[in-house]
Design a protein that fits this description.
five-stranded mixed β-sheet; 16 helices; Transposase; Transposase_Tc1-like
């Protein structure tokens, strides 16, 4: 009888099927010795299967628990608090501090625990320092203009100064390379010790880019230069883009912008000023996005000297479309809402 039952079972090769066959024989009254005689599996395996079945009443293998965790949930929460107290602490430093709390773990374990809580190591974003006054002024400004629509912002001319440097120093550059090509000429970004820097002043609105002027070398960015720029660049832009229509001019709180002579001159020209503008708030000025776009386009041209750099800047500036300018202006309501949501802190721009 045993031979009749076992013959078809001998063809079974998988562990799961072998286990099922052994338990089937056991249920049919065969002893462990009888089942061993069939040579369906090693003796130790057969007796282990039978023992597990008697203890649990199932042929399923209990899932192994794996290596015990070195830390409890409470200790994991402590690690999280330590990290949030000092965001710049390294995993090795955290491991040492954690060890003082009774957890002996490696830096790798620390990284795994933090990753479970969504704390991933990333390069810190560089943003202007915000004082309490800055935050307060940002909130006052955003609340004042929180009801403005994209159409309202379309009546504003935004302005700012920006530096441009030779050899791609204006921003980061990514390249795709093969192994061994790290220093290939097409994969490196040339640098010089003292790159030529060109300062420009520009303005734009939802109607497109306005004037752009380059500050001559060795010229101080003072109130005299600024008034001359407004006279020769801003007023023609207002006339060209708005005509007799009322518009509002935005500039930040740089010393030459806040000079009494400048404020009086703008008043004499019937130019309404947006503000008061909060300090250290480039994320509220859409021209910052325009500068970033312009710098990427200029860097792609790879100018090799100051004259070529100036030529490329002017060429790429006039090539900026009105659609792009309008899209940046239309982002203002959401940007204002984001700053209010973050209670005056930095936001992405």
């Amino acid at each position: 009888m045993l031979e009749i039952i076992v013959l078809p079972l001998l063809t079974m090769v998988t562990c799961k099927e072998t286990r099922a066959a052994i338990i089937a024989l056991h249920k049919n009254g065969f002893t462990g010795k009888d089942i061993v005689a069939t040579k369906i599996a090693p003796k130790s395996t057969i007796y282990r299967f039978i023992k597990n079945f008697k203890e649990r009443g199932s042929i399923l293998v209990k899932k192994a628990s794996g290596r015990p965790r070195k830390s409890s949930k409470r200790q994991d929460r402590l690690l999280k608090r330590i990290q949030l107290r000092d965001r710049s602490a390294t995993s090795a430093e955290l491991a040492q501090e954690w060890q003082q709390a009774g957890v002996s773990a490696s830096a790798r374990t620390v990284r795994r625990r933090l990753l479970e809580d969504g704390l991933v190591s990333r390069r810190a974003a560089k943003k202007p320092l915000l004082s309490k006054k800055n935050i307060r002024d940002r909130l006052i400004f955003c609340r004042k203009y929180s009801e403005w629509t994209a159409e309202d912002w379309g009546k504003v001319i935004f302005s700012d100064e920006a530096p441009f440097r030779l050899f791609g120093a204006s921003g980061k550059r990514l390249v795709r390379r093969r192994k061994g090509e790290r220093y290939h000429q097409s994969c490196v970004m040339p640098t010089v010790k003292h790159p030529d820097t060109i300062h420009v002043w520009g303005c734009f609105s939802s109607k497109g880019v306005g004037s752009l002027t380059i500050l001559p070398k060795n010229t101080a960015m003072n109130k005299e230069w600024y008034q001359n720029t407004l006279q020769q660049q801003l007023l023609p832009t207002i006339q060209q883009q708005f005509g007799e229509e009322q518009c509002i001019f935005q500039h930040d709180g740089a010393p030459c912008h806040k000079a009494k002579v400048i404020t009086k001159w703008l008043g004499d020209q019937n130019v309404e000023i947006l503000g008061p503008w909060p300090g250290n708030s480039p994320d509220l000025n859409p021209i910052e996005n325009l500068w970033s776009i312009l710098k990427r386009r200029v860097d792609k041209q790879k100018p090799t000297n100051s004259d070529k750099l100036q030529e490329v800047i002017m060429k790429e500036w006039v090539a900026i479309s009105q659609d792009l300018a309008q899209k940046l202006i239309e982002s203002m309501p959401s940007q204002i809402a984001e700053v209010l949501k973050k209670k005056g802190q930095h936001c992405k721009y």
